[in-house]
Amino acid sequence: MILLLPGTDAAEVAREVHNDLSPLLRHLVTVSAAGPVSGAGPSTAAIWRHCAAWR
């Protein structure tokens, strides 16, 4: 599962996702985070398409 989430502190968002999903799914989850990105770059849709291609 790939989630693109808004926020200015990627590490904090990752911790929150991990802390919320692990008990919900009843097993540990692996979470990775990066960002935020500033300036010109790929659109969110382009990033999503790239990540979805990994399936």
Topology:
Blueprint: H1 10-25, H2 44-52
Structure description:
The protein has 55 residues and is mostly helical. It is 45% helix and 0% strand. The protein is built from 2 helices and no strands. It has helices at residues 10-25, 44-52. The longest helix has 16 residues, at 10-25. It is flat, with a radius of gyration of 13 Å.
Summarize the structure.
This protein is mainly alpha-helical. 45% of the residues lie in helices and 0% in strands.
Key descriptive features of the protein:
55 residues, 45% helix
Shape: flat
Distance between the termini: 9 Å
Q: How many helices does DSSP assign?
A: 2
Largest sheet: none
Low-pLDDT sequence parts: none
The counted number of beta strands is 0
What Rg do the Cα atoms give? 13 Å
